[in-house]
Amino acid sequence: MTKQTTIYDEIREKGHSRRDFIKFCGMMAAMLGLEHSAAGQIAKALETKPRLPLIWLHGQECTCCSESFIRSSHPIVADILLDKVSLDYTETLMAAAGHQAEEAMHNTMEKYKGEYLLLCEGSIPLTADGVYCCIGGRSYNDIIQEAADGAKAVIAWGNCASSGCVQAASPNPTGATPIHKVIHGKPIINVQGCPPIAEVMAGVVVHLLAFERIPQLDGLGRPKAFYSRRVHDTCYRRPNFDAGLFVESFDDENARRGYCLYKMGCKGPSTYNSCGVIKWNNGVSFPIQSGHPCIGCSEANFWDNGPFYRRLPEFPGFGIESTADKVGVALGVGTAVGIAAHAITTNIRKKKLIERGHCEPEESNT
Amino acid sequence: MEKRIVVDPVTRIEGHLRVEVEVKDGKIVDAFSSGTMVRGLELILKGRDPRDAWAFTERVCGVCTTVHALASVRTVEDALGIAVPPNAEMVRNLMFCAQYMQDHVVHFYHLHALDWVDVVSALIADPVATSQLAQSISNWPKSSPGYFSDLQKRLTKFVQSGQLGIFANGYWGHPAYKLPAEVNLIGVAHYLEALEWQKEIIKIHTIFGGKNPHPNYLVGGAACSINIDENNAINAERLAYVGRLLDEAHTFINQVYIPDLLAVASFYKNDWGAIGGGLTNYLAYGDLPTNGYSDVERFKFPRGIIMGRNLNEVIPVDGKDPDQIKEFINHSYYDYSSGVEQGLHPWDGETNLNYTGPKPPYDYLNVEDKYSWLKTPRWKGNPMEVGPLSRMLVGYASGRDEYKEVVHYALNKLDVPVTALFSTLGRTAARGLESILVADWAKEFYNQLLANIRNGDTRMANNEKWEPATWPTEAKGVGMTEAPRGALAHWIVIKDKKIDNYQLVVPSTWNASPRDGKGQRSAYEESLIGTPIANPDQPLEILRTIHSFDPCLACAVHVYDEKGKYVHQIQTF
Prior knowledge:
heterodimer; A: alpha/beta; Rossmann fold; Cytochrome-c3 Hydrogenase, Chain A, domain 2; five-stranded parallel beta sheet; two-stranded antiparallel ribbon; 14 helices; 9 strands; B: alpha+beta; five-stranded antiparallel beta sheet; three-stranded antiparallel beta sheet; 14 strands
């Protein structure tokens, strides 16, 4: 048997230097919210670990997760994920031979039983014996059950696999069902978003490679590293919200000044994702920065929590009902659920400063 | 004796597609194309806010992301009578162009090239000869002997490791591969370079739409306001970023993609310039408005129809005429309340799922009866091909000089007659030729956007009809666009501020649909007839023609012998 090459070997073969490699590990550590010393741990793990076998399946989906995946911005990330990890079966990326491809998948399933990772893109239609998604004459449910059986863990890419996404929106005509409701007895990581951010996808895989364990997950199965903060809390427009400065209609004067999009229906206050921190496509922008409200794509059932342009308070049970208006009218009132707990005076001052376009150093609120 | 070859699923495309073909005396004599996945989005859209429809429909496809969002906002704008500001038109055009350039390059290198390029053969290439060849066809700087030698060493090590990864089990060595080793090595080098480049060009979507895949759109314009004196809006930094990405894209297309395309084509022109022509009718809705969407004459991609390959006449197409575009379900798993025989115009369209195919697991579809989740669209009863070849032919037949220029350039360079366009290779070449045009046009749109701002026009959204209170009780609209894969349109009926009916007729529905009630095949099926199959275990030829359409469905290939016994199954790009 040929010696299994490590990821570090592969990276060197690709022509990257050790310095590049360490930089990459540092970036991954930062992205995962780890101490800088963890970079050494990641580097060590990637230097010595054999390539992790992966099987990637497609159900009811639009392939936006695969597309996002190949946009991973760090130069080495693409290398790692395209051929540093042993991607033994991928309908999207592999060159050839269904017969041989299926054989490759079965070889992996046998040889690495209990060790390989199963990556799934898309939901599973359960209505009508699964006839709404068939591959090679088999129902997707049949295929994924077999593949999940020997998997060490399952990654559910995106909203489709995590919560059914658009096809599961009311009335869900095909019975589109997320992975975790169908596959049992396996650790399942829900990497949410429509699609998930490329660097988040890379980060989750690297976490598994480097630490050999499932990342900490929130109550909905999402890795805490990337889904523990609301978009609202990490949004660079947040000071405008606190100051009661809102876009009132698209492309109005306030929109041109980058005020808060809350009144335009922004779902940032109820959406957990990394858009405000990592941003998209190598940190170029994210929806709010480009002037559009967050539509909440990393939350279960976000399609039925709309309409998108209706602001959150009009939904019963959501705690910030009157916040925007009160803040807007009374110039800064703390919210019932503690979203904005700043002192009124601070907000009034902040509002005036922003309106004047001043950029003074801010006094501490505490 | 006939062999049945089943292709299910072909990978490296979006969605799930199955193709069954009959082979006799080494040639395909009949073909059946089937979509094997359905999500019922049209049912889900009922009762929703029309302003939200773009987000739902954008999720039809993450490969050609943006195109459904554009069709959707246009549909609603058409229904409500909204004209978008000139800047929003330019931003939409720029996003459109970015999508085309990214999609066509990814298609050529990552979805289609391995049908023509033998990766393993690149191992025996002479790096010095490769360098000379590369420098003779392009000014692209990454062309030294050392560059190709390093790549070859990496490739050799990769192959020797025994782990071929995504290149494992290709048809390497198949007699239908005809490129010299040096061209194959260039192909592999650019395969890798294109993978890096494609994540750059889509940043135009991120700048204007906040993310990619699935950037944000807005009924009435675009959400990214312009304010050149503000850090939180489209300003000089953002625009300069877009300008740089457009320059890089222009260079990549003209110095990498096009020289490679012509080099590959020159070795396959004699056979594949005559195979896979298929239908003789071509449809393009046109796109890239320069004077508002209502001024069709000023589209960069003209609208029209060519019948019977007659390039002397361009026939107009009207999406609102109830007698022109209709969808049939004779061989599709649906019911119509008016019965199966009658086609329906999309405004009256119905989506009633009714699967009557074999219970999975199954070996064959019942092709005599219903066999696909795709409906069968027809223009005045005729099957139409849509896509890059249709756009190129409609532009050429419309007498546009820039189209004639690129077409004649390619025909002269390859020394082939104009009839070579009607082929598998012609379809693949048309995709490249329009990329040249799109890369040029994108710069025009960019300059127009800058000129507008310079002249004091920074409007980005028209809000006059934003509030549902301003809408009529009932309204109908059509929104058309040209997706990279072809003519795409959405039809909407709005009642009481909500979506009453929403129908999508997508490019792959035109091309990949099952035959109609008269037995007329659609584009995929027709284009496969007569295609030679050298080795049924490795039906590379099927993949070449099917991939030339850039299918928006995912497929695999299963090959069965005449008794239905399993012989082989192929999974490929």
